[in-house]
């Protein structure tokens, strides 16, 4: 059942996420940040969505811990494309069409199901449904994902993501010709009030979001682009490219409403480069995954149908 915890802050002016983590042995800082981001923390009756909210003396803080739907996670043998693995971390090249972790509607066939068959030592910070998962990429986005084998590695990788010290580069094809060579989109992202299944650029209950981009190739009505994430919001690249007028080709959620003219299911978006500091050895690691065949096929199709004149 859903539980509600109420606290009164006494002579404390620290960050909300850190303060809450000190209130219960069951809450890690990662867990409290998740509760805050999901609008499950109220201060004096008002929802707080920023982990760095400064608590004031006398604040009444309510924490609503929702039910976790019990999911029976089954290990499934899969031919995972493991790019790197040691006793602390795994880097996997996820194919397009694979969901990262089980959820209602996707209880099996996910990356987590495959990881559980591949190895038994995965971090438990994100709960039974998401063992080892530090970050995720969308079902129809292909590419590199880092996975933690134990909680120490998990905390380190999350901290690197939060401190913006990881390298995450994506290749994408967008509609339209971007006239400048590179640029930055700095626009906050939050839930779309008109469609709760979408994210949008908004000032309402939003979080800072920054995407850097650079043109790889112009393709007569399309542009092949390299995007680099500074932050990692849900659907960030898809939302930001739409926001500046260059939606991703074949994106069913944020692209044009016209029919997809290409032989690909889902947005043409690939997590190409992933770099981070090894959580135990301190070594700088950098990995690249080549463009999948379906991405290459779209590039070839555009070049054939829309030659530059």
The CA-CA distance between the termini, in Å, is 64 Å
User: What is the domain tally?
Assistant: 3
Q: CATH architecture of the largest domain, please?
A: 2-Layer Sandwich
Q: Which radius of gyration do the C-alpha atoms yield?
A: 21 Å
Protein model, in words:
The chain has helices at residues 16-21, 29-37, 111-118, 151-162, 236-243, 293-305, and strands at residues 3-8, 41-43, 46-47, 60-65, 82-85, 89-94, 142-148, 167-175, 182-186, 189-191, 199-201, 210-218, 222-229, 269-277, 284-288. By secondary structure, it is of the alpha+beta class. It folds into 3 domains: 3-65, RNA-binding S4 domain (Structural Genomics Hypothetical 15.5 Kd Protein In mrcA-pckA Intergenic Region, Chain A); 82-162, Pseudouridine synthase; 167-305, Pseudouridine synthase (2-Layer Sandwich), CATH 3.30.2350. The strands form 3 sheets. Strands 5, 6, 7, 8, 9, 12, 13, 14 and 15 form a 9-stranded mixed β-sheet that branches. A 4-stranded antiparallel β-sheet has the order 1-4-2-3. The protein starts with a strand and ends with a helix. The active site is at 138. This is Pseudouridine synthase. Residues 14-79 form the RNA-binding S4 domain. InterPro entries: PsdUridine_synth_cat_dom_sf, PsdUridine_synth_RluA-like_CS, PsdUridine_synth_RluC/D, PsdUridine_synth_RsuA/RluA, RluA_PseudoU_synthase, S4_RNA-bd, S4_RNA-bd_sf.
């Amino acid at each position: 059942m859903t539980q509600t915890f109420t606290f009164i802050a006494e002579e404390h002016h620290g960050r909300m996420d850190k303060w809450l983590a000190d209130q219960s042995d069951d809450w890690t800082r990662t867990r409290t940040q998740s509760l805050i981001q999901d609008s499950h923390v109220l201060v004096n009756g008002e929802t707080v969505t920023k982990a760095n909210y400064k608590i004031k003396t006398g604040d009444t803080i309510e924490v609503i811990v929702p039910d976790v739907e019990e999911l029976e996670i089954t290990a499934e043998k899969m031919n995972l494309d493991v790019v790197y693995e040691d006793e602390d971390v795994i880097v996997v090249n996820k194919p397009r069409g694979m969901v990262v972790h089980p959820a209602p509607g996707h209880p099996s066939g996910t990356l987590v199901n495959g990881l559980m068959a591949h190895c038994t030592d995965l971090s438990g910070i994100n709960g039974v449904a998401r063992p080892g998962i530090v970050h995720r990429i969308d079902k129809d986005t292909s590419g590199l994902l880092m996975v933690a084998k134990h909680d120490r590695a998990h905390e380190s990788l999350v901290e690197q993501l939060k401190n913006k010290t990881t390298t995450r580069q994506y290749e994408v094809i967008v509609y339209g010709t971007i006239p400048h060579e590179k640029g930055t989109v700095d626009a906050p992202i939050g839930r779309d009030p008109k469609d709760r299944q979408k994210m949008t650029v908004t000032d309402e209950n939003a979080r800072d979001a920054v995407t850097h981009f650079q043109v790889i190739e112009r393709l007569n009505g399309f542009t092949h682009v390299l995007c680099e994430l500074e932050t990692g919001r849900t659907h960030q690249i898809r939302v930001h490219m739409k926001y500046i007028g260059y939606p991703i080709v074949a994106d069913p959620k944020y692209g044009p409403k016209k029919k997809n003219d290409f032989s690909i299911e889902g947005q043409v978006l690939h997590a190409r480069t992933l770099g981070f500091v090894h959580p135990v050895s301190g070594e700088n690691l950098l990995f690249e995954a080549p463009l999948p065949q379906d991405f290459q096929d779209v590039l070839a199709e555009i070049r054939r149908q829309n030659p530059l004149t």
